[in-house]
Amino acid sequence: MKKTERKLVIVEGEDSFVSSALSKLCNFVVDETNHKTISKSYGHLGEGFNSVGYSALQRVNPEVLSSLEGMVTSGGMLIIGARNFGEIANPEIFHDEDALRYKSDRKVQLHNNFLRRMVDIVSDCDCLSKIDSCSNTDELLKIKERPNKDYDLSFLELTDRMKEFLSDDQLKVLLVTGCRGSGKSTRMAFMVRELIKKKYRITVTGMISHAAKKILDYNPDVHFTGIDAIAAKELSSRNVIVIDEVASVPLPKLKELVSTGARLLLAGTTEGYEGTGSGIMLKFLPYLDMRGLKYRLNHLNTCFRHEDDSLGKLWKKIFCPGCIEEHTPDGRVVPVDTLQIREVNAGDLMKSEKLLGGIYSLLSGSHYKTSPSDLRQLLDNPLNRLFVIADDREKINGVLWGICEEMKDAMVPEVFLNRRRPRGNLIPQTLVAHCGFKNAGYYRFFRIVRIVVPDELRRNSYGSTLIRYAENQLTDSTDFFGVSFGIAEDLLKFWQSNGYVPVKVGMREDAASGLFSVVMLKTGGSLKREVMQEWHDEFIREYILSAGWQHSELSSAAAVLLLRHGIRAEKADGDYIRNLNSLAYGLRSPEQALTHVIRWIAENTAEWTEWPDRQQEALIGYFIQHREQENRTDLDRAVELMRAGMKKLVPDSPGTRQN
Prior knowledge:
The chain is α/β, with parallel strands linked by helices and 659 residues long.
């Protein structure tokens, strides 16, 4: 083994011996018995250590364990402490507390495939060493105590993209990405020094100050500022906001920083197994495109902290299957009627690394939140249902992953009264606790967690075909099919085209995506349709009341889509008829009878959804969202069309007009 090759060391024995050995042999230890050290570990992700330890005495957290490999410097070691590493997949011997995160019921037994697979992969690796209480650890101790060369990167030079950022004030954002140990933070520190020389005003910020340690150490005159203190300021292009580990910053915060007027110098890790890194690529860069802002992406391919050695390949194989080998589709569009669609289970995934890699790489490359916890869900949760679509060459061209959700009857009253918040069952709990639909707790749901089709194959009905196949397979065991996602117009249109209707919109924007979430449902039988219509009608009434203040950030186009199914018309009384008559023939302005206008909008979606898009958005934007309309022509035309629609409901007679 080369001196630069990193190694994996397993320490086994009694708890006291394992804890003592980790403390003795490691520069940095994450102890899962102490939640403070877990959160603290994320603040050290930008650093390098000769020896990094992980205590697996009580739990195995996929997110934390997966992130530690990138902190180990060349020639260093990652040490895992356990009573018996080979038995951590045996629930009778190792009671993994982390497993509770994946259970909606404590009595549900996980498959434990994730840990079993990890043990099998580790057992076959070339970089593994094991020690116990009888082992001599002098050589390992030397590794810990040798000088740490992680900071000796003075030979690095600025890239062409970085030089462009220094010289072009119109370049709004520079995003530097790469694996851990690629010199991102060091180059960021150099960049800050050069920006200071050019008289730029530098503000270093982020979610935690420790993430910017290298930048601050190299530039002692620069100080860390809390991100909330910056977001409210008005700045100029001579201000540069600097963030290292930008993947930890919620998207809404990044949007606020863009709005300050300052330029942004950002760095982030895009390792697939870390889950959040790809969020910047999938969400933030399209936002910059939409705003017409100039940016550059600078990816660093070389890792200086360590080589792409056996430990790195081992960790990718464990936590990001499909990342080492290429599993992406070849782009051929196969007719829908010739596609192979089938359901696969955890056993199938354990038997075929190719199948697992094809599915997981597609999920992680298409969704900003995919992380090692999702991998464990796929392999372990017995409530999973997984459907894949493949072409004639067995290439995975689509994945639908869902979870069966059903609350216990005895739990429903407790959840309804906000006395209990059990894990899991997202949709029924949301409907019962947040919407007040108590009866929702007694139905069976299938929640679609992810549905993914490669970009180049979209708009070929692959996704819709997957949905119909899953619904047909589960129709006898499911009362309602549901999905929850961040509101985007294209997604709303897609799900509505597949028969799903909204029943809940979140009260605030999601911290990660910056979007309001929506829950949409679909059902089969007429009895269930009646129940769902009641839920939908109540949602429309609530949304109409809250759209102007609670969901003011939603676009009018999205609001139109949420309202397009409308509610069932109530019996019209004399007062409503008289007001419609006055509105229809111009005897009253819409502002003078707003309550009746809103009722007409809610009950007559079949009428106004046939109008041109601009008039629809003007109608909803003005009367429902209470927004001033810049284009009064569209609003005036919308009012004309509304009056024409009202005339269809009221008699055209002088007597009625006089009233």
